[in-house]
């Protein structure tokens, strides 16, 4: 019902899927033509897959037949189609399974009926949608829809990354927390803040800490002063985004900013109640202490551990955290490799590495699924990294799979191609 299975973005589906190492090679592939590229992932409710295209069309697809049940086209679609103004946000459903929430390039979030796609409400979360992009996946917790904003390719100012919390029932915008000019509440006109950028653009969007309900986000390049400007930082917010509860920035935050090495190229990852992990474009994954980040006083450096990303390059994906019995694993993929670590008490120890890159990994049905954006969906044994199968798929970008109910769903394509058609691959048990 949400990107990476839970509001805390574990990337793990802990139940049987009907797909095993024994039958994965015999799945039947169906390719469904979409009205646009889906540079994100699908969600799934009661036999139906839901996707949002880069130009904001949301489509409902029967997972067994590939038939399109309904399509929603947001007002303004014709003015964005084929342009660089896009969204790459995965939609989210609420616990009733009656409603889904989807983003559009016009800067609005829509509440749609899951049964027929009719609009219940819409609300804007930016005053400058041509500069502030909804890139990260939408989230849902405690009756709230949670959305974040970033910028477009080229980091052209003015824009500010911010977190918007919406009442799911009414569509009322409850709180907005701005990562620049954070002393100002609510939506701001970007030109009225003296700082720009600080995109919140990780694939997971805002992560909900399962221990506290707090929101965790990471920001991209921008000034950092530890008071009102929080570029290249990991931030802990109250569950309603009304206030800052904790923060961290690396000691070399100024260098990251000047070198375009966004700390927030991926969202924070909850390892346990006391630790989170944060990747970045500088090729590092940092293990951080929750206690050391606490409070509004600025916290620079003090990492518990720093390890290299799988191939030592930019991390643009959402790692997965798998609790298997008494063991905890972290899986991550970048453009050059896929890697697994054992995690224990704030420390990561490498378990295995595979020299094939990927997007955001997911664990489902006891298998590890990693899409190679160069083509192909790789299936591994999570404990050893042994390759079980490679399912045929075309190229892509940030797309990632879901695995449920005897189906695997994976969108193809790259948002930056600005296409108005696309493909959804669905593999099913015969």
List the helices and strands and how they pair.
Layout: E1 12-13, E2 28-34, E3 43-45, E4 48-52, E5 58-62, E6 68-72, H1 77-80, E7 92-93, E8 99-103, E9 108-113, E10 119-124, E11 139-141, E12 144-148, E13 162-167, E14 173-178, E15 207-208, E16 215-218, E17 234-237, E18 244-248, H2 253-258, E19 269-272, E20 275-278, E21 284-289, H3 290-293, E22 305-308, E23 320-324, E24 327-333, E25 338-344, E26 347-354, E27 362-364, E28 367-371, E29 377-380, E30 387-391, E31 402-404, E32 407-411, E33 422-428
Parallel strand pairs: 1-27
Antiparallel strand pairs: 2-33, 3-4, 4-5, 5-6, 7-8, 8-9, 9-10, 11-12, 12-13, 13-14, 15-16, 16-17, 17-18, 19-20, 20-21, 21-22, 23-24, 24-25, 25-26, 27-28, 28-29, 29-30, 31-32, 32-33
Q: Can you walk me through this structure?
A:
The protein has helices at 77-80, 253-258, 290-293; strands at residues 12-13, 28-34, 43-45, 48-52, 58-62, 68-72, 92-93, 99-103, 108-113, 119-124, 139-141, 144-148, 162-167, 173-178, 207-208, 215-218, 234-237, 244-248, 269-272, 275-278, 284-289, 305-308, 320-324, 327-333, 338-344, 347-354, 362-364, 367-371, 377-380, 387-391, 402-404, 407-411, 422-428. With 430 residues, the chain is mainly beta. The chain has a five-stranded mixed β-sheet with strand order 1-27-28-29-30, with no helix packed on it. The chain is globular.
SSE class: mainly beta
Kindly report the average pLDDT value. Answer: 98
Query: What are the low-pLDDT stretches, counting only 5+ consecutive residues below 50?
Result: none
Number of helices: 3
Largest beta sheet: what is the strand line-up?
1-27-28-29-30
Q: Tell me how many strands there are.
A: 33
Rg on CA atoms, Å: 20 Å
Question: What composes the largest sheet?
Answer: 5 strands, mixed
Beta-strand residue percentage = 35-45%
Taken from the alpha-carbon principal axes, the silhouette is globular
The helix fraction, in percent, is: under 10%
What multimeric state do the chains show? Answer: single chain
Termini separation = 24 Å
